[in-house]
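I hope you will forgive my troubling you with a question about protein structure. The record follows directly beneath this note:
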Amino acid sequence: MRDRTHRAIATLALAGAVQLAFASPAAVFAQQQDTIATLNDRRVNLRAGTGNTAGIAARGMRLVSYTPKPAQLDSASGLAFINSDLAFRGTTVYQGNFSGFSIWNVANPARPVELSTVVCATDQADPSIYGNLLFISAESPRSRTDCGMQGVQDGKDRMRGVRIYDVSNPRAPRLIKNVQTCRGSHTHTIVPHPTDRGVIYLYVGGSSNVRDSAEVPELACSTGAVAENPNTAEYRVDIIRVPLRNPEQAAVAGYARIFQGLPRPAGRGGVSLGDTATGRWATGPSGCHDLTSYPAYHLVAGSCGSYGILLDARNPEKPVVLDAKSDLNFSLWHTAVFSNDAKRVVFTDEWGGGTAPRCRTTDPFRLGGNTVLTIDNGKMTQHGYFKMPAAQTNTENCVSHNGGLVPVPGRDIMVQGWYQGGVNVFDFTDPARPVEIAYFDRGPVNADTLVVGGSWGAYYWNGYIYSSELSRGLDILELVPSEQLSRNEIEAARLARMDEYNPQMQPRITWPAAFPVVRSYLDQLVRNRGLPAARTSAIASALTRAERTRGTTRRTQLNVLAAQLDRDARRAADAARVTAMAAAVRDLARATR
Protein backbone atom coordinates (compact mmCIF):
# COMPACT_ATOMS: atom_id res chain seq x y z
CA MET A 1 0.00 0.00 0.00
CA ARG A 2 1.21 3.44 -0.86
CA ASP A 3 0.74 6.96 0.40
CA ARG A 4 0.16 9.84 -2.04
CA THR A 5 3.87 10.42 -2.52
CA HIS A 6 4.51 6.85 -3.65
CA ARG A 7 1.46 6.89 -5.91
CA ALA A 8 2.87 9.99 -7.58
CA ILE A 9 6.22 8.26 -8.03
CA ALA A 10 4.47 5.23 -9.51
CA THR A 11 2.53 7.39 -11.97
CA LEU A 12 5.68 9.19 -13.02
CA ALA A 13 7.58 5.96 -13.50
CA LEU A 14 4.73 4.49 -15.52
CA ALA A 15 4.78 7.46 -17.87
CA GLY A 16 8.42 6.73 -18.64
CA ALA A 17 7.73 3.00 -18.98
CA VAL A 18 5.05 3.57 -21.59
CA GLN A 19 7.41 5.66 -23.69
CA LEU A 20 10.50 3.46 -23.62
CA ALA A 21 11.11 -0.27 -23.64
CA PHE A 22 13.72 -1.76 -21.32
CA ALA A 23 16.92 -2.29 -23.28
CA SER A 24 18.34 -5.76 -22.76
CA PRO A 25 20.04 -8.35 -24.94
CA ALA A 26 18.13 -11.25 -23.38
CA ALA A 27 15.73 -12.79 -25.89
CA VAL A 28 13.29 -13.62 -23.10
CA PHE A 29 12.55 -9.91 -22.66
CA ALA A 30 11.42 -9.66 -26.26
CA GLN A 31 9.33 -12.81 -25.90
CA GLN A 32 7.61 -11.53 -22.77
CA GLN A 33 6.98 -8.03 -24.08
CA ASP A 34 3.92 -9.12 -26.06
CA THR A 35 2.53 -11.52 -23.45
CA ILE A 36 -0.89 -10.66 -22.01
CA ALA A 37 -2.88 -12.10 -19.14
CA THR A 38 -4.71 -15.23 -20.23
CA LEU A 39 -8.46 -15.84 -20.18
CA ASN A 40 -7.88 -19.59 -20.47
CA ASP A 41 -7.51 -20.25 -16.76
CA ARG A 42 -9.72 -21.60 -13.97
CA ARG A 43 -9.13 -18.39 -12.00
CA VAL A 44 -10.98 -16.29 -14.56
CA ASN A 45 -14.57 -15.20 -13.79
CA LEU A 46 -14.82 -16.74 -10.33
CA ARG A 47 -17.98 -16.03 -8.32
CA ALA A 48 -17.72 -12.95 -6.06
CA GLY A 49 -18.31 -13.14 -2.33
CA THR A 50 -17.26 -11.97 1.10
CA GLY A 51 -15.69 -14.18 3.72
CA ASN A 52 -15.18 -17.63 2.28
CA THR A 53 -18.27 -17.51 0.03
CA ALA A 54 -16.49 -16.53 -3.17
CA GLY A 55 -15.70 -19.06 -5.87
CA ILE A 56 -12.34 -20.81 -5.50
CA ALA A 57 -9.85 -22.13 -8.02
CA ALA A 58 -6.78 -24.08 -6.94
CA ARG A 59 -4.02 -26.11 -8.53
CA GLY A 60 -1.16 -27.72 -6.65
CA MET A 61 -2.43 -26.54 -3.27
CA ARG A 62 -5.49 -26.83 -1.07
CA LEU A 63 -7.16 -24.68 1.58
CA VAL A 64 -6.58 -26.15 5.05
CA SER A 65 -8.46 -23.48 7.00
CA TYR A 66 -9.99 -20.04 6.70
CA THR A 67 -10.35 -17.85 9.79
CA PRO A 68 -12.25 -14.54 9.67
CA LYS A 69 -10.76 -11.34 11.07
CA PRO A 70 -11.32 -10.75 14.79
CA ALA A 71 -14.46 -8.73 15.43
CA GLN A 72 -12.43 -5.84 16.90
CA LEU A 73 -10.71 -5.31 13.54
CA ASP A 74 -13.58 -6.15 11.22
CA SER A 75 -15.28 -3.09 9.76
CA ALA A 76 -17.16 -2.18 6.62
CA SER A 77 -15.26 1.12 6.55
CA GLY A 78 -12.61 -0.51 4.38
CA LEU A 79 -8.96 0.50 4.13
CA ALA A 80 -8.43 1.50 7.77
CA PHE A 81 -9.15 -2.03 8.95
CA ILE A 82 -7.53 -4.27 6.36
CA ASN A 83 -5.02 -6.92 7.38
CA SER A 84 -1.35 -6.52 6.49
CA ASP A 85 1.77 -8.66 6.94
CA LEU A 86 2.74 -11.72 8.98
CA ALA A 87 5.56 -12.87 11.25
CA PHE A 88 6.11 -16.33 12.75
CA ARG A 89 7.56 -17.90 15.89
CA GLY A 90 7.08 -21.41 17.24
CA THR A 91 3.39 -22.21 16.78
CA THR A 92 2.41 -18.54 16.76
CA VAL A 93 1.52 -16.23 13.87
CA TYR A 94 1.52 -12.44 14.29
CA GLN A 95 -0.81 -10.70 11.84
CA GLY A 96 -0.73 -6.95 11.29
CA ASN A 97 -3.79 -4.81 10.61
CA PHE A 98 -4.07 -1.12 9.77
CA SER A 99 -5.74 -0.68 13.16
CA GLY A 100 -3.62 -3.04 15.27
CA PHE A 101 -2.56 -6.67 15.19
CA SER A 102 -3.67 -10.19 16.14
CA ILE A 103 -1.76 -13.14 17.58
CA TRP A 104 -2.80 -16.66 16.56
CA ASN A 105 -1.91 -20.10 17.86
CA VAL A 106 -1.55 -22.37 14.81
CA ALA A 107 -0.42 -25.57 16.54
CA ASN A 108 -3.36 -27.09 14.68
CA PRO A 109 -3.37 -25.32 11.30
CA ALA A 110 -6.89 -26.59 10.64
CA ARG A 111 -8.16 -24.65 13.67
CA PRO A 112 -6.19 -21.46 14.45
CA VAL A 113 -6.94 -20.02 17.88
CA GLU A 114 -6.98 -16.27 18.53
CA LEU A 115 -4.72 -15.55 21.51
CA SER A 116 -5.13 -11.78 21.53
CA THR A 117 -6.00 -8.78 19.39
CA VAL A 118 -4.63 -5.31 20.04
CA VAL A 119 -6.54 -2.33 18.65
CA CYS A 120 -4.10 0.48 17.87
CA ALA A 121 -4.10 2.84 14.90
CA THR A 122 -0.90 2.28 12.93
CA ASP A 123 -1.13 2.12 9.12
CA GLN A 124 0.18 -0.43 8.24
CA ALA A 125 1.35 -2.40 11.28
CA ASP A 126 4.17 -4.22 9.52
CA PRO A 127 5.21 -6.87 12.14
CA SER A 128 8.51 -8.54 13.03
CA ILE A 129 9.23 -10.89 15.90
CA TYR A 130 12.56 -11.45 17.68
CA GLY A 131 12.40 -13.61 20.77
CA ASN A 132 9.67 -12.13 22.93
CA LEU A 133 9.80 -8.73 21.25
CA LEU A 134 7.22 -7.81 18.62
CA PHE A 135 7.96 -4.77 16.45
CA ILE A 136 5.09 -2.94 14.73
CA SER A 137 5.50 -0.20 12.13
CA ALA A 138 3.40 2.95 12.48
CA GLU A 139 3.09 5.93 10.16
CA SER A 140 -0.58 6.96 10.32
CA PRO A 141 -1.47 10.59 11.12
CA ARG A 142 -4.11 9.11 13.46
CA SER A 143 -1.56 6.97 15.31
CA ARG A 144 -1.25 7.93 18.97
CA THR A 145 1.49 7.18 21.50
CA ASP A 146 -1.17 5.64 23.79
CA CYS A 147 -2.79 3.58 20.98
CA GLY A 148 -6.05 5.47 21.41
CA MET A 149 -8.48 5.51 18.49
CA GLN A 150 -9.79 9.04 19.03
CA GLY A 151 -7.36 10.64 16.58
CA VAL A 152 -4.62 13.20 17.27
CA GLN A 153 -5.43 16.75 18.32
CA ASP A 154 -1.99 17.66 19.71
CA GLY A 155 0.93 16.65 17.48
CA LYS A 156 3.01 15.71 20.52
CA ASP A 157 0.63 12.76 21.05
CA ARG A 158 1.32 11.41 17.56
CA MET A 159 3.33 8.20 17.06
CA ARG A 160 5.20 7.66 13.82
CA GLY A 161 7.93 5.08 13.98
CA VAL A 162 8.19 1.57 15.43
CA ARG A 163 6.29 0.27 18.46
CA ILE A 164 7.94 -2.42 20.60
CA TYR A 165 5.77 -4.94 22.46
CA ASP A 166 6.68 -7.58 25.01
CA VAL A 167 4.76 -10.68 23.89
CA SER A 168 6.21 -13.15 26.39
CA ASN A 169 2.55 -13.60 27.32
CA PRO A 170 0.90 -13.68 23.87
CA ARG A 171 -2.53 -13.33 25.47
CA ALA A 172 -1.55 -9.96 26.93
CA PRO A 173 0.95 -8.03 24.75
CA ARG A 174 2.53 -5.13 26.59
CA LEU A 175 3.70 -1.94 24.85
CA ILE A 176 7.15 -1.09 26.20
CA LYS A 177 8.49 1.55 23.80
CA ASN A 178 7.49 3.88 20.98
CA VAL A 179 10.55 4.69 18.88
CA GLN A 180 9.74 7.88 16.99
CA THR A 181 11.18 8.66 13.55
CA CYS A 182 10.89 11.70 11.33
CA ARG A 183 8.97 9.99 8.53
CA GLY A 184 7.28 7.15 10.36
CA SER A 185 7.69 3.50 9.49
CA HIS A 186 5.80 2.02 6.57
CA THR A 187 7.92 -1.08 6.95
CA HIS A 188 10.97 -2.16 8.93
CA THR A 189 13.58 -4.90 8.67
CA ILE A 190 15.61 -6.63 11.38
CA VAL A 191 19.38 -6.71 10.81
CA PRO A 192 21.10 -8.60 13.65
CA HIS A 193 24.50 -7.41 14.83
CA PRO A 194 26.99 -9.85 13.24
CA THR A 195 28.97 -10.43 16.46
CA ASP A 196 26.92 -9.08 19.38
CA ARG A 197 23.88 -11.28 20.00
CA GLY A 198 22.56 -8.73 22.44
CA VAL A 199 21.90 -6.12 19.73
CA ILE A 200 19.71 -5.95 16.66
CA TYR A 201 19.01 -3.09 14.28
CA LEU A 202 15.84 -2.05 12.52
CA TYR A 203 16.16 -0.54 9.06
CA VAL A 204 13.12 1.68 8.65
CA GLY A 205 11.27 2.20 5.40
CA GLY A 206 9.53 5.54 6.01
CA SER A 207 7.25 6.83 3.28
CA SER A 208 5.34 9.65 4.97
CA ASN A 209 6.16 13.31 4.61
CA VAL A 210 8.64 14.67 7.13
CA ARG A 211 6.70 15.52 10.27
CA ASP A 212 6.61 18.86 12.02
CA SER A 213 9.76 19.24 14.12
CA ALA A 214 7.60 20.46 17.04
CA GLU A 215 6.12 16.95 17.41
CA VAL A 216 9.48 15.38 18.28
CA PRO A 217 11.97 18.21 18.98
CA GLU A 218 14.71 15.76 19.93
CA LEU A 219 14.80 14.38 16.37
CA ALA A 220 15.25 17.81 14.74
CA CYS A 221 13.24 16.70 11.70
CA SER A 222 13.84 18.82 8.60
CA THR A 223 13.39 18.64 4.83
CA GLY A 224 15.30 19.51 1.70
CA ALA A 225 17.94 18.08 -0.59
CA VAL A 226 21.11 16.67 0.96
CA ALA A 227 23.33 19.26 -0.74
CA GLU A 228 21.31 22.06 0.84
CA ASN A 229 20.62 20.39 4.18
CA PRO A 230 23.02 17.57 5.22
CA ASN A 231 20.67 16.67 8.12
CA THR A 232 17.52 16.37 6.04
CA ALA A 233 15.19 13.52 7.02
CA GLU A 234 14.62 12.79 3.35
CA TYR A 235 16.82 10.63 1.08
CA ARG A 236 17.86 8.22 3.83
CA VAL A 237 17.10 5.02 5.70
CA ASP A 238 16.73 5.45 9.46
CA ILE A 239 18.48 2.85 11.64
CA ILE A 240 17.14 1.96 15.09
CA ARG A 241 19.43 0.18 17.56
CA VAL A 242 17.69 -2.24 19.96
CA PRO A 243 19.59 -3.59 23.00
CA LEU A 244 17.71 -6.84 23.58
CA ARG A 245 18.22 -6.92 27.35
CA ASN A 246 16.90 -3.37 27.65
CA PRO A 247 14.56 -2.84 24.70
CA GLU A 248 13.03 0.21 26.36
CA GLN A 249 16.35 1.92 25.50
CA ALA A 250 15.87 1.37 21.75
CA ALA A 251 16.52 4.56 19.78
CA VAL A 252 17.48 5.89 16.37
CA ALA A 253 21.23 5.30 16.10
CA GLY A 254 21.69 7.10 12.81
CA TYR A 255 20.78 6.77 9.19
CA ALA A 256 22.17 5.54 5.91
CA ARG A 257 22.52 7.75 2.83
CA ILE A 258 22.48 4.98 0.23
CA PHE A 259 21.07 6.91 -2.73
CA GLN A 260 23.77 9.38 -3.67
CA GLY A 261 25.70 8.63 -6.86
CA LEU A 262 23.42 5.88 -8.16
CA PRO A 263 23.36 5.38 -11.95
CA ARG A 264 20.74 7.64 -13.50
CA PRO A 265 17.68 5.71 -14.83
CA ALA A 266 17.58 5.98 -18.61
CA GLY A 267 14.73 7.99 -20.08
CA ARG A 268 13.85 9.94 -16.97
CA GLY A 269 15.53 13.23 -17.78
CA GLY A 270 14.38 16.08 -15.60
CA VAL A 271 12.63 13.84 -13.08
CA SER A 272 15.22 14.27 -10.33
CA LEU A 273 18.39 16.11 -9.45
CA GLY A 274 20.58 14.04 -11.73
CA ASP A 275 23.90 15.22 -13.05
CA THR A 276 23.62 14.92 -16.84
CA ALA A 277 27.39 15.10 -17.24
CA THR A 278 28.10 12.07 -15.03
CA GLY A 279 24.86 10.15 -15.59
CA ARG A 280 24.45 9.87 -11.81
CA TRP A 281 21.75 10.94 -9.39
CA ALA A 282 22.70 13.84 -7.16
CA THR A 283 19.95 12.85 -4.73
CA GLY A 284 18.16 9.67 -5.80
CA PRO A 285 15.01 8.16 -4.25
CA SER A 286 13.56 9.69 -1.12
CA GLY A 287 13.55 6.36 0.71
CA CYS A 288 12.99 2.60 0.48
CA HIS A 289 9.66 0.86 0.66
CA ASP A 290 11.11 -2.44 1.92
CA LEU A 291 14.51 -3.80 2.80
CA THR A 292 15.12 -7.55 2.98
CA SER A 293 18.07 -8.66 5.08
CA TYR A 294 19.89 -11.97 4.64
CA PRO A 295 22.12 -12.13 7.73
CA ALA A 296 23.87 -15.37 6.73
CA TYR A 297 25.42 -13.49 3.79
CA HIS A 298 25.50 -9.99 5.35
CA LEU A 299 23.30 -8.75 2.51
CA VAL A 300 20.33 -6.42 2.34
CA ALA A 301 18.18 -5.93 -0.75
CA GLY A 302 16.59 -2.49 -0.80
CA SER A 303 13.40 -2.01 -2.79
CA CYS A 304 13.57 1.73 -3.14
CA GLY A 305 11.00 3.20 -5.51
CA SER A 306 12.91 3.55 -8.78
CA TYR A 307 15.75 1.21 -7.76
CA GLY A 308 16.61 -2.24 -6.53
CA ILE A 309 19.71 -1.78 -4.36
CA LEU A 310 22.10 -4.42 -2.99
CA LEU A 311 23.83 -3.57 0.30
CA ASP A 312 26.69 -5.05 2.31
CA ALA A 313 25.56 -4.86 5.96
CA ARG A 314 28.61 -6.29 7.74
CA ASN A 315 28.58 -3.04 9.68
CA PRO A 316 24.83 -2.61 10.25
CA GLU A 317 25.15 1.06 11.19
CA LYS A 318 27.01 1.84 7.96
CA PRO A 319 25.74 -0.32 5.10
CA VAL A 320 27.64 -0.08 1.82
CA VAL A 321 26.02 -0.04 -1.63
CA LEU A 322 27.28 -2.91 -3.77
CA ASP A 323 25.05 -2.39 -6.79
CA ALA A 324 21.80 -0.81 -7.94
CA LYS A 325 19.46 -1.45 -10.86
CA SER A 326 16.58 0.47 -12.41
CA ASP A 327 14.08 -0.68 -15.01
CA LEU A 328 11.54 1.36 -16.94
CA ASN A 329 9.23 -1.65 -16.86
CA PHE A 330 9.14 -1.39 -13.08
CA SER A 331 6.85 1.24 -11.62
CA LEU A 332 7.78 0.73 -7.95
CA TRP A 333 10.50 -1.61 -6.68
CA HIS A 334 8.60 -2.92 -3.67
CA THR A 335 10.03 -6.04 -1.97
CA ALA A 336 12.77 -8.61 -2.53
CA VAL A 337 13.41 -12.31 -1.89
CA PHE A 338 16.86 -13.93 -2.12
CA SER A 339 17.46 -17.48 -3.30
CA ASN A 340 18.74 -19.67 -0.51
CA ASP A 341 22.32 -19.54 -1.86
CA ALA A 342 22.10 -15.74 -2.33
CA LYS A 343 22.99 -16.10 -6.03
CA ARG A 344 19.62 -14.77 -7.18
CA VAL A 345 17.15 -12.19 -5.99
CA VAL A 346 13.54 -11.59 -6.99
CA PHE A 347 12.29 -7.99 -6.87
CA THR A 348 8.58 -7.19 -7.01
CA ASP A 349 6.81 -4.24 -8.62
CA GLU A 350 3.75 -2.83 -6.84
CA TRP A 351 2.42 -0.88 -9.80
CA GLY A 352 -0.56 1.20 -8.73
CA GLY A 353 0.03 0.85 -5.01
CA GLY A 354 -2.06 -2.25 -4.33
CA THR A 355 -5.51 -0.66 -4.52
CA ALA A 356 -6.01 -0.83 -8.31
CA PRO A 357 -6.68 -3.62 -10.84
CA ARG A 358 -3.40 -4.29 -12.62
CA CYS A 359 -3.81 -7.88 -13.87
CA ARG A 360 -6.30 -7.37 -16.70
CA THR A 361 -5.79 -8.33 -20.33
CA THR A 362 -5.31 -4.63 -21.07
CA ASP A 363 -2.47 -4.20 -18.57
CA PRO A 364 1.18 -4.45 -19.67
CA PHE A 365 2.47 -7.83 -18.58
CA ARG A 366 5.86 -6.55 -17.47
CA LEU A 367 4.40 -3.94 -15.13
CA GLY A 368 3.13 -5.11 -11.76
CA GLY A 369 5.06 -8.38 -11.63
CA ASN A 370 8.50 -9.63 -10.67
CA THR A 371 11.97 -9.61 -12.15
CA VAL A 372 14.80 -12.03 -11.37
CA LEU A 373 18.41 -10.91 -11.07
CA THR A 374 21.52 -12.99 -10.52
CA ILE A 375 24.20 -11.87 -8.03
CA ASP A 376 27.88 -12.40 -8.76
CA ASN A 377 30.55 -10.86 -6.57
CA GLY A 378 28.16 -8.16 -5.37
CA LYS A 379 26.92 -7.22 -8.84
CA MET A 380 23.39 -7.85 -10.14
CA THR A 381 22.40 -8.89 -13.66
CA GLN A 382 18.75 -8.74 -14.68
CA HIS A 383 17.11 -11.68 -16.42
CA GLY A 384 13.43 -12.60 -16.86
CA TYR A 385 10.07 -11.29 -15.69
CA PHE A 386 7.19 -13.15 -14.09
CA LYS A 387 3.60 -12.09 -13.46
CA MET A 388 0.56 -13.98 -12.23
CA PRO A 389 -0.91 -15.02 -15.62
CA ALA A 390 -4.68 -15.29 -15.05
CA ALA A 391 -6.70 -12.27 -16.19
CA GLN A 392 -8.52 -10.50 -13.36
CA THR A 393 -11.45 -8.08 -13.45
CA ASN A 394 -11.89 -4.35 -12.93
CA THR A 395 -13.17 -5.01 -9.40
CA GLU A 396 -10.09 -6.95 -8.26
CA ASN A 397 -7.08 -5.04 -6.99
CA CYS A 398 -4.22 -7.15 -8.26
CA VAL A 399 -0.47 -6.62 -8.48
CA SER A 400 2.74 -8.26 -7.34
CA HIS A 401 3.09 -8.23 -3.54
CA ASN A 402 4.82 -10.06 -0.71
CA GLY A 403 6.18 -13.60 -0.60
CA GLY A 404 9.03 -15.87 0.39
CA LEU A 405 10.85 -19.09 -0.44
CA VAL A 406 9.34 -22.58 -0.48
CA PRO A 407 12.21 -24.77 0.86
CA VAL A 408 12.49 -27.42 -1.84
CA PRO A 409 16.10 -28.62 -2.11
CA GLY A 410 17.65 -28.17 -5.53
CA ARG A 411 15.14 -25.56 -6.72
CA ASP A 412 14.46 -21.85 -6.26
CA ILE A 413 10.73 -21.66 -5.55
CA MET A 414 8.76 -18.70 -4.25
CA VAL A 415 5.21 -18.35 -2.93
CA GLN A 416 3.61 -14.93 -3.27
CA GLY A 417 0.46 -12.92 -2.64
CA TRP A 418 -1.10 -10.93 -5.49
CA TYR A 419 -3.94 -9.24 -3.60
CA GLN A 420 -7.14 -10.36 -5.37
CA GLY A 421 -4.99 -12.22 -7.87
CA GLY A 422 -4.69 -14.75 -5.05
CA VAL A 423 -1.66 -16.80 -4.02
CA ASN A 424 0.68 -18.53 -6.41
CA VAL A 425 3.90 -20.52 -6.40
CA PHE A 426 6.53 -20.17 -9.11
CA ASP A 427 9.95 -21.63 -9.87
CA PHE A 428 12.77 -19.19 -10.70
CA THR A 429 15.62 -21.72 -10.81
CA ASP A 430 16.12 -20.59 -14.39
CA PRO A 431 16.23 -16.81 -13.82
CA ALA A 432 15.39 -16.09 -17.47
CA ARG A 433 12.29 -18.29 -17.53
CA PRO A 434 10.39 -18.39 -14.21
CA VAL A 435 7.30 -20.62 -14.38
CA GLU A 436 4.14 -20.94 -12.27
CA ILE A 437 3.62 -24.32 -10.59
CA ALA A 438 0.66 -23.84 -8.19
CA TYR A 439 -2.04 -21.34 -7.23
CA PHE A 440 -5.06 -20.58 -5.01
CA ASP A 441 -7.53 -17.83 -5.83
CA ARG A 442 -10.96 -16.58 -4.82
CA GLY A 443 -13.35 -14.49 -6.83
CA PRO A 444 -13.63 -10.74 -6.13
CA VAL A 445 -14.99 -9.45 -2.84
CA ASN A 446 -17.65 -7.59 -4.84
CA ALA A 447 -18.63 -8.19 -8.46
CA ASP A 448 -19.72 -4.62 -9.16
CA THR A 449 -17.44 -2.40 -7.05
CA LEU A 450 -13.74 -2.62 -6.31
CA VAL A 451 -13.47 -3.50 -2.61
CA VAL A 452 -9.85 -3.79 -1.51
CA GLY A 453 -9.04 -7.37 -0.60
CA GLY A 454 -6.92 -10.40 -1.43
CA SER A 455 -3.59 -11.79 -0.27
CA TRP A 456 -1.25 -9.16 1.20
CA GLY A 457 1.51 -11.73 1.52
CA ALA A 458 1.87 -15.51 1.41
CA TYR A 459 4.67 -17.36 3.20
CA TYR A 460 5.78 -20.96 3.67
CA TRP A 461 6.21 -21.77 7.36
CA ASN A 462 7.00 -25.26 8.64
CA GLY A 463 4.86 -27.23 6.23
CA TYR A 464 2.07 -24.78 5.40
CA ILE A 465 1.48 -21.60 3.44
CA TYR A 466 -0.02 -18.72 5.43
CA SER A 467 -1.78 -15.93 3.57
CA SER A 468 -2.92 -12.68 5.19
CA GLU A 469 -6.21 -11.83 3.46
CA LEU A 470 -6.81 -8.08 3.59
CA SER A 471 -10.58 -8.04 3.93
CA ARG A 472 -11.40 -11.63 4.83
CA GLY A 473 -8.97 -12.92 7.47
CA LEU A 474 -6.27 -15.63 7.57
CA ASP A 475 -5.88 -18.47 5.08
CA ILE A 476 -3.74 -21.54 5.70
CA LEU A 477 -2.89 -23.58 2.62
CA GLU A 478 -1.00 -26.77 1.88
CA LEU A 479 0.92 -27.87 -1.20
CA VAL A 480 -0.23 -31.06 -2.89
CA PRO A 481 1.68 -33.19 -5.41
CA SER A 482 1.49 -32.34 -9.09
CA GLU A 483 3.47 -32.97 -12.25
CA GLN A 484 5.56 -29.89 -11.36
CA LEU A 485 6.07 -30.62 -7.64
CA SER A 486 6.48 -34.17 -6.37
CA ARG A 487 5.47 -35.71 -3.07
CA ASN A 488 9.15 -36.14 -2.22
CA GLU A 489 9.83 -32.44 -2.83
CA ILE A 490 6.89 -31.48 -0.62
CA GLU A 491 8.05 -33.84 2.12
CA ALA A 492 11.61 -32.48 1.90
CA ALA A 493 10.27 -28.94 2.25
CA ARG A 494 8.41 -30.02 5.39
CA LEU A 495 11.69 -31.18 6.90
CA ALA A 496 13.14 -27.64 6.75
CA ARG A 497 12.03 -26.33 10.15
CA MET A 498 12.41 -22.79 11.45
CA ASP A 499 12.00 -21.53 15.00
CA GLU A 500 11.34 -17.97 13.89
CA TYR A 501 10.62 -16.32 10.55
CA ASN A 502 10.30 -12.71 9.52
CA PRO A 503 9.82 -12.50 5.74
CA GLN A 504 12.00 -9.36 5.63
CA MET A 505 14.80 -11.09 7.55
CA GLN A 506 15.48 -14.15 5.47
CA PRO A 507 16.83 -17.26 7.25
CA ARG A 508 19.24 -19.65 5.54
CA ILE A 509 17.42 -22.92 4.95
CA THR A 510 19.02 -26.25 5.81
CA TRP A 511 17.66 -29.77 5.46
CA PRO A 512 18.34 -32.79 7.67
CA ALA A 513 19.80 -35.95 6.17
CA ALA A 514 16.71 -37.80 4.90
CA PHE A 515 15.52 -39.95 2.03
CA PRO A 516 12.92 -37.38 0.80
CA VAL A 517 15.74 -34.85 0.33
CA VAL A 518 17.72 -37.29 -1.84
CA ARG A 519 14.61 -38.32 -3.76
CA SER A 520 13.77 -34.68 -4.41
CA TYR A 521 16.94 -34.37 -6.46
CA LEU A 522 16.11 -37.62 -8.23
CA ASP A 523 12.59 -36.44 -9.10
CA GLN A 524 14.07 -33.27 -10.54
CA LEU A 525 16.52 -35.26 -12.68
CA VAL A 526 13.65 -37.35 -14.00
CA ARG A 527 11.59 -34.24 -14.74
CA ASN A 528 14.34 -32.38 -16.59
CA ARG A 529 15.98 -35.48 -18.07
CA GLY A 530 19.23 -34.61 -16.37
CA LEU A 531 20.18 -38.31 -16.45
CA PRO A 532 19.07 -41.13 -18.75
CA ALA A 533 15.86 -42.87 -17.67
CA ALA A 534 17.62 -46.19 -17.14
CA ARG A 535 20.04 -44.55 -14.74
CA THR A 536 17.37 -42.71 -12.69
CA SER A 537 15.43 -45.99 -12.39
CA ALA A 538 18.54 -47.74 -11.11
CA ILE A 539 19.19 -44.96 -8.57
CA ALA A 540 15.57 -45.19 -7.35
CA SER A 541 15.97 -48.95 -6.83
CA ALA A 542 19.23 -48.45 -4.95
CA LEU A 543 17.57 -45.94 -2.61
CA THR A 544 14.68 -48.31 -1.95
CA ARG A 545 17.08 -51.14 -1.08
CA ALA A 546 19.09 -48.88 1.23
CA GLU A 547 15.99 -47.62 3.02
CA ARG A 548 14.95 -51.19 3.81
CA THR A 549 18.23 -51.85 5.63
CA ARG A 550 19.79 -50.46 8.79
CA GLY A 551 23.16 -49.63 10.32
CA THR A 552 26.38 -50.62 8.57
CA THR A 553 24.60 -52.21 5.61
CA ARG A 554 22.67 -49.05 4.83
CA ARG A 555 25.74 -46.88 5.28
CA THR A 556 27.77 -49.04 2.91
CA GLN A 557 25.07 -49.08 0.24
CA LEU A 558 24.67 -45.31 0.41
CA ASN A 559 28.41 -44.67 0.11
CA VAL A 560 28.56 -46.97 -2.93
CA LEU A 561 25.64 -45.04 -4.49
CA ALA A 562 27.34 -41.69 -3.78
CA ALA A 563 30.48 -42.86 -5.60
CA GLN A 564 28.37 -43.95 -8.56
CA LEU A 565 26.69 -40.54 -8.62
CA ASP A 566 30.10 -38.86 -8.73
CA ARG A 567 30.78 -40.76 -11.92
CA ASP A 568 27.29 -39.97 -13.27
CA ALA A 569 27.93 -36.26 -12.81
CA ARG A 570 30.80 -36.33 -15.30
CA ARG A 571 28.44 -37.07 -18.19
CA ALA A 572 25.08 -35.83 -16.89
CA ALA A 573 23.03 -33.20 -18.66
CA ASP A 574 22.45 -31.68 -15.21
CA ALA A 575 25.77 -32.27 -13.49
CA ALA A 576 25.19 -29.75 -10.70
CA ARG A 577 22.03 -31.49 -9.51
CA VAL A 578 23.65 -34.92 -9.64
CA THR A 579 26.54 -33.57 -7.55
CA ALA A 580 24.08 -32.11 -5.04
CA MET A 581 22.31 -35.46 -4.82
CA ALA A 582 25.61 -37.23 -4.21
CA ALA A 583 26.31 -34.85 -1.31
CA ALA A 584 22.84 -35.53 0.13
CA VAL A 585 23.43 -39.28 -0.12
CA ARG A 586 26.73 -38.93 1.77
CA ASP A 587 25.00 -36.83 4.44
CA LEU A 588 22.47 -39.63 4.82
CA ALA A 589 25.23 -42.22 5.09
CA ARG A 590 26.98 -40.21 7.83
CA ALA A 591 23.69 -39.88 9.73
CA THR A 592 23.04 -43.63 9.64
CA ARG A 593 23.58 -45.38 12.96
In short: The chain has seven helices and 32 strands. The longest helix spans residues 551-569. The helical segments are 4-19, 27-33, 487-495, 515-527, 533-547, 551-569, 575-591.
